[in-house]
Design goal:
This protein has about 290 residues and is an alpha+beta fold. The protein is built from 11 helices and 10 strands.
Length: about 290
Amino acid sequence: MNEPTPLSEIEERYRDIFDNTSDLIQCLGPDGRFLYTNRAWRETLGYSEEEVRSLTLDDVLHPDCRQHCLHRFRQLKAGESVPHVEFKFVTRSGETVHLRGECGSLIKDGKAVSTRGIFRNITGEKRAEQALRASEARYQLLYDNAPDIYSTVDTEGMILSINRNGAAMLGYAVEELTGRSALQVIHPDDHEAVLAYMASQFERPVPGSQIEYRKLRKDGSVLWVQQRVALAPVVDGDEQQLLIVCRDITETRKLSDRLAYQATHDELTDLVNRREFERRLARLIASGSAGDAQ
């Protein structure tokens, strides 16, 4: 028959677990003073065991969550359950520590004689979240203010997203275009060509390919664009999407048309010049000869 394990040995085992766990463990008296803390708690907050004896909960609470945490502490003293908490402590050196965990009360004769908490340090996780949010905010700022029209469309030609400046170039707010057909902002005469181009890019993308066509602003005016696309990576079973970049080439097209006109018309009379007249005449003769031959 096995000998019972001495109480001192059991206590030593629990003390070893208590002091060597990575979680922060604390016990508070009704007055908010720390009755005990484990090694992880003291090392994280930078206090010695002796210093902790003179601390109260209010001494280590971050100002941003002081009122909320003191309210929770009052709930615990009243015997209420506080299963999930997330808050911030301030270390001895003034750094912020983010914690998440569970709290409970030790009840004797119907009263809470102490409260206990077991917390996990989530400071690294919070910093990563903050860095991600900052990065996303910077990206969104760049995206929204890019000088070109950035958008994504699905295989049905529906606009899934568009940058703020791009929508403004077309005379719309972002919300007016999101979820609408891309054809709404494409000149009717260019629908067929643009749809064929986009379908080909979904089926077999060609890096660097582009198309020039006319977009229609909300007021009905025309905006010539040069469009490039890329097939977006499919994530978690999402449907295919095209990433589209449209650059305003309206002024370039106007200049090109003006130069072409000047090259074929007399500057003084504004009539077709001799070179263009002869070119057109040659085409007519050629077409007439072809008709006679048939």
